[in-house]
Amino acid sequence: MRDNFADLARRALRDSGYSMKAAARAMNYDVAYLSRVFNGKQKPSAKLASSLDSLVGADGALAATVLDDDDSERVKRSAANPSRLDAGTVDALAGVLAAYRRLDDTAQPRSVIPATTAQMNEVLRLLKGARGPQRDRLAEVASEYVQFGGWLLAQDRQDTEAVRLLNEAVELADEIGNGTLAAQALNFRGYLARQQARPDGVARWYAAAAFTPGAHPAQRLGDMLQAAAGMAELGAHDDALRMVENAERLTDKAAAIPPPETAYWLTPEFNRLNMGLANLGLGRHADAADHITAGLAGLPAELRDAPWTWEHRDALKRAQAAR
């Protein structure tokens, strides 16, 4: 499996405004050593990975993409002989994916896309030859890799490829009966429709996500609210109001259990953002502004400046202007 740390680190430095020489000075490292690491000729030490992570403000996510020696060897063995896939390999790949997803909270999407795509393709190749009791667990990781790739592409408005990957993610999730993963991929289809200014698609895909068997209550809550926003924009206000009422009935149930790992951000505070979007669609501008303001304030510090929050900030401006 590929080690994509060098590519991620180079792009993270560029986005943060550092040249290699400036980064070397800031971290007190030899520039020749950094050059070898960034060119993939030498594996970074744990200390260097941590220093780079701190320099670019990745909150541990960049360093977490680097496998330790034992996991690296384990993954290499499984890649060479997929039919003998073991639990440790799946755990290692899931851990790297979790780091990529956290990196999306601080980095520009297009800076994470190349490494994600390369890793996704390696996981899919491994899945084709995988056998045994760990195969379904790997399929879950593969589905999440594919949906994450689709999400990144949707943010970067590479729409055609985003749709292809999100559809593939749904198929992988359905293959193993994982409704949580299927619902999340459909949710991302709704997000893309919103970027395309297609309220019919917003209503369709978020409603499909909300009523996917096996979806987590927090997913269903957020998806119903976003479907309601699309319905309201289409002029179907009665349907939108009913959808909001159905969502509100899920509030306590969703808050009582942790969000799913595949959608770790779906806290009650985050769903205030979705309630804000629904109210904005319904023309309740003061309520929309209050919900979005509270939702943004309730995000963890490391998420508040994430690129995906920009559309919520824009929605807040529109709500405040229309009050």
Rounded radius of gyration (Å): 21 Å
Strand content: under 5%
Summarize the main sheet: none
User: How many β-strand runs?
Assistant: 0
> What's the tally of helices?
17
Give a topology summary.
Elements: H1 5-15, H2 20-27, H3 31-38, H4 46-56, H5 69-80, H6 87-103, H7 109-129, H8 135-155, H9 159-175, H10 179-195, H11 199-210, H12 217-233, H13 237-248, H14 251-255, H15 268-281, H16 285-298, H17 310-321
Helix pairs in contact: 1-4, 1-7, 5-6, 6-8, 7-8, 8-9, 8-10, 9-10, 10-11, 10-12, 11-12, 12-13, 12-15, 15-16, 15-17, 16-17
Written description of the protein model:
The chain is mainly α and 323 residues long. The chain is 71% helix and 0% strand. It is built from 17 helices and no strands. It has helices spanning 5-15, 20-27, 31-38, 46-56, 69-80, 87-103, 109-129, 135-155, 159-175, 179-195, 199-210, 217-233, 237-248, 251-255, 268-281, 285-298, 310-321. Helix 7 (109-129) packs antiparallel against helix 8. The radius of gyration is 21 Å and the shape is globular. The model has no long low-confidence stretch (mean pLDDT 93).
